[in-house]
Amino acid sequence: MSAEGAGNGAGMTSPYTEWHFHLFAAQYGRMITRLLVLLQENPDSFAAHPEAKFFKKVRTRMDTALGEPGAKEYEIGNTLENQRYDGKKLGKGYSGWRRIKNGMPDRYRLFFQFSSPSHELVFAWLNDERSIRRAGHKNDVYAVFARLLASGTIPTEYRLLREQSSSPSPNPRFEGNTDQCRFGKR
Hints:
The protein has 4 helices and 9 strands, in the order E-H-H-E-E-E-E-E-H-H-E-E-E. By secondary structure, the chain is α+β, with helices and mostly antiparallel strands. The chain has one domain.
C-alpha cells in the first residue's frame, strides 16, 4: 500500500488516497498554519483551543470518510438539484457529490467526490462562518456550494476535479484518542 493510503490516524487503514482541490487546500493550509502558531505559543493548552478542537473534528471526519467514502451518511440526495443559480434549478448531474455532516462542527459541511476504481478521494470545499447551514438563506452552505459548481469554480466532473487537486503535505493527525497532534505523511 502506498504511503498516502497507509493509516488514517485512528489506527485504521484506508484504501483511498487523499487529495485536496485547490479551494480546500488553501483553507486547510490556513488551518494548519494557525495550528502551528497555537502550538508554538502555548503547547500546554493547545488542545483546548477552539481552533484546535475545530480542526480535530474536521480531520477525524475526513479520516473516517477515507475509510468508506460511499457510506450512505455522506449522500446529499437531491439537495443540490433543488438549489437555484441565475433563477434556475441546477437539476440533475450532481449525484457524484458527497458531504460530511455528522460529527462536524455545527452547521459546517465538507464536500467531496471519490473514485472507487482509482481509490482516490478529493476533498473539494469546506464552508466557513459566512456560509454556515441556514436553510433558505442565500449564503446557506448548500446554496454557496451550488453556485461554486454552477459557475465552474469547482468542476462537477471527477476527472477535472482530480486534475486540479494536490496531495496534502504536511498532513497533521491527532494521535488516537489523545490530543497529541503530529505533522507528516499518513
